[in-house]
Every structure is written in C-alpha cells, then in structure tokens.
Amino acid sequence: EPEVTQTPSHQVTQMGQEVILRCVPISNHLYFYWYRQILGQKVEFLVSFYNNEISEKSEIFDDQFSVERPDGSNFTLKIRSTKLEDSAMYFCASSVGLRPQHFGDGTRLSIL
Amino acid sequence: QKEVEQDPGPLSVPEGAIVSLNCTYSNSAFQYFMWYRQYSRKGPELLMYTYSSGNKEDGRFTAQVDKSSKYISLFIRDSQPSDSATYLCAMGDGTGTASKLTFGTGTRLQVTL
Fold it and tell me: A–B: how many Cβ contacts below 8 A?
C-alpha cells in the first residue's frame, strides 16, 4: 500500500539553526500538508499546498517557516531560525482532493 | 469553547469489550469526519471517514455522526490488545482548495488481556 515517507525520523539541531524536513507524498496525490504535534498535545495544522502554492496556513506558520516542492516527488518544510518551542513531531500528509489525508510517521525535531 | 473536544482518557477495557470513543464539536461548518489511530511515535493512521450523518461500518469498527448534535463516535467491537493506541477524531469543513483538518486531543485506549 502506498505511503507517505518522511526523513529524517529524528533531527537534533541547535537553536537558531535552519532545518529542512523532507517528505515524499503518495505519488498520485496532489494536495500536501504539514502538521505538528507538541509532546502531549493535539495535532495542529501548519500549512496546505496545492498547485505549487500555499492554499492555507495557520497562525503558527509565520515568516520563519516555508514550504517547497522542489521536484515532482519531494515536499519540504524549512524552519529558518529554530526556537526551543519548535521542538515537536512534524507530520506530512497528502490527499487526493478532499479525500482523507494520509500521514507519514513524522520527524521528531529536537531543538537544543 | 474548543472547536473539537475529546475525552483524553486513558480508557482501559478488557479484551473482547465494546469500546465507545466520542468527540463533540462546535463548528457547524465541519462537513467530513475522520478517525485516526496513532501508535506511540508513529503518525496518525486513517481508520474511518464519513461525509454524512449516520453510521458507517468497516469490520469491527463503526463510525457514527450526528450533525444535528455535533457529535461523532467510533465503536470498536471485540476489542483486541492490538487496538491499544491513541484514537484521534479529525474533521474538516471542505472549503478552500486544500482543506485543513482540525483534530481532537486524542483518547488513549488500553485493551487488557
């Protein structure tokens, strides 16, 4: 069964450094999403992306965040200057239109 | 009032029991509803989804939606130890090009032998 894959599974970085989280969505999906889950809290929407542009973003997704689809298969989330509060699990998801979103297993981001 | 409310549990049941998991929501714009299962340190795994009020059954799982009461449920019959996980309800309003999901906090379920 096709799945969303995310790399790395765990990323440790120093505060203030840039980090890029990578995702390979399911191949025939056209809609892409990033969510995050701070330890012990609910899954929160960050951004959605379709047709090479952002469709919607939450108030969490400020100027420090950006997304890109650099080629036909990858979808990335960049955090320009990480803060301690960016420590969380980051999940990529993809969907076919308004069909249910399928999630990857996440990248655990630890900011030191 | 939170948009989506879900009892965090934990909920502990013996193997073979019927489990009922519930969410309430306040946003009447929500049009489609999902249940995800999340094992520790894994991503949400889609279990059920529905776009209308009523019941939808898939094996041991039944999803129920009551839009008039803004209430959704997931029933698990003949629960197994492998069902032990956190169950997340999620919902979307279907507006916009790529519609976001709003999640509940999740209910942690433990099925004991």
Answer: 68
Tens-digit pLDDT profile for residues B95-105: 766 689 999 99
* A16 touches B58 (CB < 8 A): no
Cα B72 to Cα B17, B102, B105: the distances in Å are 20, 14, 14
The CA distance from B112 to B83, in Å, is: 10
B103/A43 touch (CB, cutoff 8 Å), yes or no: yes
| Residue ranges of chain B whose pLDDT lies below 50 | none
**CB-CB: which of A4, A55, A100 is closest to B97?**
A55
pLDDT attached to residue B96: 64
